[in-house]
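Re: that chain you flagged

S.,

Sorry for the slow reply, it's been a week of failed gels. I finally had a moment to sit down with the sequence you sent. For the record, here it is as I used it:
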Amino acid sequence: MADAIELNVNGKTYRLSVPPETPLLYVLRNDLELNGAKFGCGLGQCGACTVLVGSQAVRSCAYPVDAAQDKPITTIEGLGSPERLHPLQQAFIDEQAVQCGYCINGMVMTAAALLLRDPHPDDSAIRQELATNLCRCGAHTRILRAIARAGGETAQ
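Prediction finished late last night. Pasting the structure tokens below so you have them in one place:
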């Protein structure tokens, strides 16, 4: 049975009728047409679906939508805007830290949660935070540089 669920996503409130155990990712992509978070493994292991719930990075493919009620949800679409990019988004552009782009949502959103907790993370902290985000491209060193660069910019 579908229950009425109220979500605050990227600063907007939505009232949806979905089963409470529905993965948050499905609601974001299918109902709200926010396609930045990707479906990767479907098990919460790869990180492509990462969004912020409050200030925590969560794997939305394995996070039931009812657990997100009463908490602000931020997707990559809500992190910045085309007119005013978030420092992380700008740093990823400046460092050319994107290849295929499939994992980048998870990298950026995981890094956003890290920078909220630690505005100036060292290389070790960045590597530890991203350890469970799977990526098969060769942009790893550029991704690390982008996050370190954004750390200096978000603290200002």
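What I noticed first: The beta strands are 3-9, 12-18, 50-53, 56-59, 72-74.

Talk soon,
D.
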